[in-house]
Design goal:
The protein is an alpha/beta fold. It has a single domain, classed as Vaccinia Virus protein VP39 (Rossmann fold, 3-Layer(aba) Sandwich), CATH 3.40.50.150. The protein is 27% helix and 28% strand. The chain has eight helices and eleven strands. The strands form three sheets. Strands 3-2-1-4-5-11-10 form a seven-stranded mixed β-sheet. A two-stranded antiparallel ribbon has the order 6-7. It is globular, with a radius of gyration of 18 Å. 40% of the residues are buried. The protein binds S-adenosylmethionine. Residues 10, 13-15, 26, 58-60, 63, 79-81, 84, 104-106, 125-127, 130-131 line the site of S-adenosylmethionine. S-adenosylmethionine is lined by residues 10, 13-15, 26, 58-60, 63, 79-81, 84, 104-106, 125-127, 130-131.
Amino acid sequence: MAASRQRPPAGETSWERVAIWYDGWVGDHGSAYHRGLAIPAVLELLDPQPGERILDVGGGQGVLAPYLADAGAATTVVDASARLIAAAKRRHRTVRGARFLVGDARRLPAVVGLEEASLDAAVFLLSIQDMDPLDEVLRGVDWALTDRSRVVLLMTHPAFRQPRHSGWGYDEGRKLTYRRIDAYLGEMAVPMKSLGGGLPTRSFHRPISAYVNALADAGFATDAMLELPDLPPGRRPGRAVRGDARANTEIPIFLGLRAVRG
Ligand SMILES: C[S@@+](CC[C@H](N)C(=O)[O-])C[C@H]1O[C@@H](n2cnc3c(N)ncnc32)[C@H](O)[C@@H]1O
């Protein structure tokens, strides 16, 4: 990360202050984006197997746990927000094998209930861009996973959807909608706009190479990648249709990475 940036306190990235709104927005089965794009992509990359133990880092109110249970896998959710973990326990108490733990992803060995080399895979569902520094988080994942394991990251696409540094434009001459990108390589902490009336959370922009190289430093080799376009206009909640159909199908909204070891 940029040398000038300080390590943020956990409270700055936790979604504790927007937990009630977020829990309501996600619900039992996930938002339209979870159900239509993010969760299917995670399941495709992860390919969970019966009996596997999966660590869901920054798992919020536990939306992924029932989907992993359907595949026969047991989920351990870790999240910095005590309110979201309480919501997870309420919503998903009957999900087989699910555990919900409050903890800082940057200090996984200190999370009560986690043991070294005890889990088969780790998933970051829309959470890795809320965490910093990356190397501390991935060191903890390295500690928690077995020698033969995998990591799946699902995030908003860093090359096309960086907060405050990208947007849609319209080229009158060519009569087409295009994506404007005015920053990519530089890593930065970005205050997000206020969600659900709560205080703004914080997000961290990094180029794709930062993720691939940090995974490699932690011993995980990236072996699969998915780039997902936005939901079709009729299924996109709460937003005016932006761009033309081609721009929406050509410019991805999410990036998924899988990395393996052993
Ligand atoms: C966008 S939410 C995603 C939650 C969940 N994965 C989902 O898809 O609904 C990001 C989550 O990361 C969690 N988070 C941020 N920083 C964290 C940290 N240092 N340790 C653990 N969780 C953290 C937040 O509390 C929040 O629940």
